[in-house]
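Summary for the steering committee. The consortium agreed at its last meeting that each partner would contribute one worked example illustrating the joint modelling workflow. Our contribution is presented below. We chose a case with several input lines so that the handling of multiple components could be demonstrated. No manual editing was applied between input and output; the record is shown as generated.
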Amino acid sequence: MTDDAKPTPRLIAVDWGTSSLRAWLLADQGYVVDARSAKRGIMQIADGDFATVFRELVGDWVATYGELPALACGMIGSRGGWAEAEYVDCPADLASLAKRLLRVEAEPVPLHIVPGVMQPSGAGRLPDVMRGEETQVLGALAIAPELAERGLLVLPGTHCKWVRIADQRLNAFTTYMTGELFAVLREHSILGKPAGPDTAPVDTAAFELGVDTARDAGAAGVAATLFSTRSRMLAGELSAEATPDYLSGLLIGDELRSVLAAHHELPPLRLIGDQALCGRYRRALARFDIDDVADVPDAACTGLWRIADAAGLLSH
Amino acid sequence: MTDDAKPTPRLIAVDWGTSSLRAWLLADQGYVVDARSAKRGIMQIADGDFATVFRELVGDWVATYGELPALACGMIGSRGGWAEAEYVDCPADLASLAKRLLRVEAEPVPLHIVPGVMQPSGAGRLPDVMRGEETQVLGALAIAPELAERGLLVLPGTHCKWVRIADQRLNAFTTYMTGELFAVLREHSILGKPAGPDTAPVDTAAFELGVDTARDAGAAGVAATLFSTRSRMLAGELSAEATPDYLSGLLIGDELRSVLAAHHELPPLRLIGDQALCGRYRRALARFDIDDVADVPDAACTGLWRIADAAGLLSH
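What follows is the complete predicted structure of the assembly.
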């Protein structure tokens, strides 16, 4: 049952990650006609039957609106996903990504998958990889075009990506495992033991003490400060309940310290992602006298629209 | 049944840590008459009945040789141990530690416990704590007296301690959680997944690549290199089986990088502890052009003998 007031759907856009699955029905200019999400990330689909999940997710859209093109980004294109979409080398841009979509035959329509991006070794750079973030970045460049000539995009999360933009291209990037490091230390190390289960409000003072401690460690880095999460508690400087926020501040603070050590001058900066997590990064950045860093709102569906357009998927 | 050829026992010395328990029967000059060990660290004694474990450990020695003084060091003196021995502040030395033994009434003889050492906050130093290592250090200073005026002792392990010695005193120290960090990342993070269970021989090339990568990261530190454990594998530069040794090299390498960043000039260096682990540190040090670092053999029982002597326990 179509709604005559709504613009005509042109694309099914899917962000299919490790732990979540989101889909949008998009009309011209990426207008969102409908949206849905499910806890059906690739890790939650134990039997690997991605075809059934996809059919159930979009079947009614196709039944209602006809055969639409479908495009997905994220870990669905990894070895552990539906099919492996090869990496495109960095520097990467809209054209190089759009040229390399992987087509998977599926019901009710074929699914195209955006390749990941690999930064090869060399010129003093470590190899690095992303899957899904490249689409966020291309979306962000449409939302915040002032960054397209020169910018630094930060995508906090389990594996936080810092992506350097130059001349509309994704030029280089570094992955910081800050989120995963926090999770494993919180859950499995001696540093996580004293605090009980997570309490709701953030202990801002403890978080900022962690950030400042990481900042002031200078080149000695987090290796020399990590144990202070415990020793400050034993010395009576930190309550047991405050240790997780201190640890979070210490790890995010060390990430910022590391990024600043690697840059002579920081390009214009934007944060993309979860509001609460971006809030932590913004608070930590302020301790380094970097204020007023703006957020770019979630940009995955904008990025998928742009890539689909560049790949010619919308012309059918 | 005494052996007339053996010197007369004078002290029961006990190193009672988190995961292991070792005891020695010592004669003059710390000569080892008998030794035993058990997997009865404080974490393995679920019911907290340390008294029974102690009685079973040394009962026959007392029955054979009479009422000997007993002295223990390590986590047995922590809040989770038998009784809490307060920390002595840093700088600490033989006299300040010997003065603050905690006496616990026990069968067949009372047990004295060496206090831990706390480095208070201040003068740009983070607070830090140790329990057990102070005794190793005092033993090492007797074994390697050339370090007593100025030296740096490294005690690799779950929580590696770097201890600065000046004028026969334990002057300052820093804890590096390298061992625990490796264990939680190996077991619980995405970095540990690709490799199967531990294989026996160390992959030296992968270990050294990790060390070099950490060294060459400079001030950016381990935050910027940790994910390379995975990305190098995805880029085909590292086999899945080699990733644990690469990660080990990366973490030990970052520890050394951090220590060197904090020192203008490194004092004379010695390693104490597990042979295989000291071997990894020695190999990593060589990648920083620090060669021929000698080991000090296990020094706990020497340290216990010295402390017992300074405390007057041997005069009875």
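Chain A has nine helices and 14 strands. The CA atoms of residues 40 and 53 of chain A lie 8 Å apart.
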